[in-house]
Amino acid sequence: MSDVITNILVCGTGGQGVMTAAEILSQAAIARGLDCKKSEVAGMAQRGGVVTSHVRFGKRVWSPVITPGTADILVAFEVAEGSRWADMLRPGGVAMVNTIRLVPPVVSAGLFKYPDDPVAQMRAAGVTVYDFDAGAIARELGDLRLINTIMLGAIADYLPFPAGELEEQIVGRFREKKPAMVEVNQKAFAAGRDAAESAKTKTSAA
Amino acid sequence: MTAAVQAKPQSRLLLSGNDAIARGVWEAGARVAAAYPGTPSTEILESLSLYPDLYAEWSVNEKVAMEVAIGGSMSGARSFCAMKHVGLNVASDAFMTVTVAGVIGGLVIAVADDVGMSSSQNEQDSRFWGRFAHVPVLEPADSQEAYEMAKYAFELSEAYNTPVILRLTTRVCHVKAVVQVGEKVAHAIGGFKSDARRWVMTPANAKGLLPAQIAREGKLQALAEASPLNFLDDGKDKRVGFVTSGPAFMHVRESFPDAPVLKLGFTYPVPLALVEKLAGQVEHLVVVEETEPLMERELKAAGLQKIHGKDLLPRLGELTPNVLIPAIKTFLGEPVPPATTYPKFDPFPRPPTMCAACPHMGVYYSLARMRKNVQISGDIGCYTLGAGHPWNALDSTISMGASMGIALGMDKARSEETKDKAVVAVIGDSTFLHMGMQGLLDIVYNRGNVTVLILDNRTTGMTGGQNHAGTGKGLKGDDTPRVDFTKLVEALGVNPERIKKIDPYQLPVVFKTIKQETAIPEVSVIITDRPCVLSEFYSKIEPYKVVDEDCTGCGNCINVGCPAITVKRSESKVRPDGKVNELKFTTIDTAMCTGCNMCVESCGPKAIVKAKPAVAAE
Tell me, what's the ipTM? Predict the structure, then answer.
């Protein structure tokens, strides 16, 4: 086991399942015997505000927060939130972005403008972004709440352990309480992996 | 949370500091635990409520929580209370005296500081209370330490006959880290033994106990010097040594892996000899503490040389690596690496907002309509969001329960310009029971002309929906008597004719009632009665939609502030008189809409109608 720390920033808006995704990632890391710290910035998040969770794992983790410019992976459940936290990435880090646009009342009322294309903005700044519509995939699978599992699937191949270990953490939660949800979550996880792969191919080709 | 309750000894769990503390308190054999919810401390009691063999309650405020724990300790039970930083201000009266009387069963007080202010009205350093009250302060840096120190705090409390402060910060409470748990030790309740000289704090009795308090502080000083909670983590780079505690230690260790660090867990009394030892090995000493320069001043006052701290580091907020590294490198004259490679985007603010169908929106919608003629004194809770967009309907928020006293002050200090303005105080149900009642009594007693709005949503909303004396449920969800706000307010002396109970979803009624009561020059109380949409008392009904052909773009529904309503198209229309009207055509997210009806009542052209049976996706 090397001394390298993996830093993952999960972001989105209140109610999207950011906390749960971060929890699952952390559980997968400690199941591996790694040290892990997960910082929640929940506060008033339940009221539709910004939510982030810092997940850090490795042989020994000291600080519970990711230093700006050192995140290996940014997982954004909402596209503008992805751009908000893009500066947390290290050079060469990857932003995995759900293209859903959640417009807050202050924007809706015309006080602020929602950026036309946050992904293009990030790319223009040199960030490696893989983007896809996780909402559409979730709807196709029959439940918008699956966005969570899809996004975890999307980063599964960028982790320092096999994707199957992350999948097991997700599916394991349902196996006891809601066995009916196991299969659809497996599908969502696989769909997330595929979506990330084609997003990568599309980006590299462009 | 559940995992920690069921976990076998020696198992390795991913626990938040709050859940780890609960496990430690339970393992220590505590029998009484009390708190009032407050971020970031809330989950400690929620977690404790799941353990067997332990009495756990939501108290009406922190002072009462402290008193319950004191009563438990007097009776020989290990007792615990938890609160956020501002909560200890409330509890301080009882606290400052029990520190003189001492304990029988161990008495541990967990105080959580909101360093970085995620959801508080101030950023205060609770370590001052240790000095003020002459009690030891323990400061864990992560979940494992929080768990261990919670257990040890009970031993320390009993061995030295003193309450113990377990000082926490957000980065302990809300960080999940790996914890190896242990075994519960049984701790019987000894029972209360009458001893008036000990427990009746008349001046004569208290005077007799004060010398013991001073003597105790001396012994604690010696203990801190020898405590394994304080240790020197050696390093090769002797240019700067660090003295630090709490999560700041983690940030230091991460930022400067080669520097010697004195890691303090037993932080009051300050172990001076240990610091001197480190000072002898390094060129400079930097005290890294969140938030006030408390230790720094004590070390300087003790005559220690080469001490730095807030001359290099910020006085406010967290001392994370991105703050520490540039500050120390600059001090050492080293080049500072650029903070980030990618630019910072700040697309738009996304402030917290009220939930779709929140019953508070109707009240603020109405207050916003009469804004010019009212002064509005607010309080702590979800309804503080009424200060934000689109209502802008709060003039003050100071501290919990303060809305009424402040409103009375505003009423009594009217100027020529404000003499005709109505003074309105807005407070929530939990907050009213916490500290608001006395304020209302004062308004009645001193003949204030204030209209009080008690927004009863049957929960403690902002902290996540905890029960209180007005919900009819206890911490464990058990049935309890539910306070009757109308009767309570009447008992405080409000004229029964001036007490109105209304449905906040009926906008015309809300508007009319506030208008009518503010016009009457005496105290009125308007109680709104609709549960929080996130509470178990709330039931959703069929959602609404906007009929495009009927929508005139007036934007009234937007002013209700419901996040389920969004503008889908804007249009500028030039009127015959040359003025420009900004039209906003809206749409309703049927997945979010709960059918509360408020937007329907705000809509002139009747363009909002029941949607057909809702589907999960829009």
Answer: 0.93
